[in-house]
Amino acid sequence: MRLGIISDCVHVQHSDGRIGTETHILLYQLEALAVYFDEVHVACPFTSFNENKVATFYTDKKFSFIHLPNVGGNNWIDKLRLLQTIPKWWSAFKKIDKSSDIVYQRFPNNLNLPGFFYFYFNHKKVFATYTGTWENYLNEPFTYRLQKWLLKKCFRGTVWAYLDKPSDNVKIRKGFSPSYSKKVWDEETEQVNKRIEKLKLEGLQKLKLISVGAFVPNKNQQFILDACLQLQQLNISFQLTLVGDGYLKDEYQKFLDKHQLNTSIIIAGKKTTSELIKLYREHDFIIQAPIREGFGKVPIEGFFHGLVPILSDVGLAKAIAEDNRGFTFSLRNQKSLSDLLENLSNKSALLPNMILNGRAFAASKTLEAWAAEYASVILV
C-alpha cells in the first residue's frame, strides 16, 4: 500500500539532503504510521534551512516529498500569494493522487481546503485528522468552521478529532495526538519510581514548574507569569521554566526584569526532544494556560515522565486531569491559579498516586497505539 499525505507542516532540507521539521511530534507520528505502508509521499511547504532551526530529520527511507511554497498571513499581499500558489497545490494533489492508494489529510489548514474538493471529486480513498478545537468557539475563523462542516457532512473517509466523548457520527472518531513510543514509557519507569520515593520522603521542597509552547497570545503564558508574581510576593519558593519561542518573548522578558523574577523564571527557548526530556525530568509539574486547545500533547508527555499537569479548564483539560491525574483552574479568575499553586505544598501526599494514574493513562497514548488504531480502520 502507498500512502499520500497532505500537510501544512513546514519542512526544511539540510545541505546534506536530509529532510526534517521543527514540528518533531508530527514527524514521529508519520514515521509510526509509515510502518503499515510500502511508500509514503508527502506534499508540504518548505522553507530554507539554517543552523538556528531546531529540526528533527526523517530516517525512514520510504518517505518522498513534494516541495510547496510556504505561504499564509493576514494582509492582502499574503492573500494574493496564497491565490497564486493554488495552481502549485493542484499540481501536488495530482502527483499525490497518482502515487498513492489512500490519502491522509490533516485539517485545518489552507492547503487541505482545496485539497478536500480535489480528492472528493476524484473519488479518492481518504482519511483525516482535525487537529484543532472540534467544538465551535467565539471568533473562530470561518474557514475552520467550513472545514469542520465539510468533514462532518461530506468527507468520505474516517475523521479523527479531539473529542471529550464519542461522536454520534460513525465517521468521526475520538482521537489523540501522541508524542512518545512505548520504549520511552519503559525507559522512564526507574526515574519515575525514584521521583515518587523522593516525594514520599521529602515532600515538595520547591515548586518546579515547566510550560511548553509557542509564545503567542493563545498559549497565554502571561497568565502563568502573573500567578508566579503572586508566589514571589508570598515568599513561596518556586522555579518556572518556559520552553518555546515567539513574538511575545521580549514582552515576557521585560515582565521578568520589571518584577525581578529572573532568578525564579527561566525562558529556555526552543528545545530538541532529548533536551526537552531532560527538562521534564528536572520538574514536578506541567503548567499550561491556553485560551483554546484541541488536544494538549504537553500534559500527556508530562505523564510519561511522572509530572502532574496543572491546566486551564479548556478543551480536553478536565478529561486529561480527571480520575486524580492532575489539576485544573479557571481563566476567568486569576486567583484560581495562584491559590492552587499556593496550596500545592499541602498536597504532597496526593502526588505519588497522581503520578501513577497519569503514567497508566499515558501507557495507552503511545505512537504505536495511535498508528495501530488508524491502520485497523483505514486498511480494510
Description:
With 380 residues, the chain is α/β, with parallel strands linked by helices. It is built from 14 helices and 16 strands. It has helices at 24-34, 76-99, 112-121, 142-153, 182-187, 189-202, 221-233, 249-258, 273-281, 297-305, 317-321, 334-342, 351-362, 367-378; strands spanning 2-6, 11-13, 19-21, 39-47, 56-57, 63-68, 102-107, 126-130, 159-161, 172-174, 207-212, 238-243, 265-269, 285-288, 308-312, 327-329.
Number of strands: 16
Proportion of strand residues: 15-25%
State the major sheet. Answer: 10 strands, mixed
| Terminal CA distance | 12 Å
Coarse morphology: globular
Given helix and strand content, the structural type is: alpha/beta
The stretches of 5 or more residues where confidence is low (pLDDT under 50) are none
- Amount of helix: 40-55%
Element string (H = helix, E = strand): EEEHEEEHEHEHEEHHEHEHEHEHEHEHHH
Features:
380 residues; 16 strands; alpha/beta; 41% helix; 10-stranded mixed beta sheet
Quick overview of this protein structure:
This protein is of the alpha/beta class and 380 residues long.
Helix-strand blueprint:
Blueprint: E1 2-6, E2 11-13, E3 19-21, H1 24-34, E4 39-47, E5 56-57, E6 63-68, H2 76-99, E7 102-107, H3 112-121, E8 126-130, H4 142-153, E9 159-161, E10 172-174, H5 182-187, H6 189-202, E11 207-212, H7 221-233, E12 238-243, H8 249-258, E13 265-269, H9 273-281, E14 285-288, H10 297-305, E15 308-312, H11 317-321, E16 327-329, H12 334-342, H13 351-362, H14 367-378
Parallel strand pairs: 1-4, 1-7, 2-4, 4-6, 7-8, 8-9, 9-10, 11-12, 11-14, 12-13, 14-15, 15-16
Antiparallel strand pairs: 2-3, 3-5
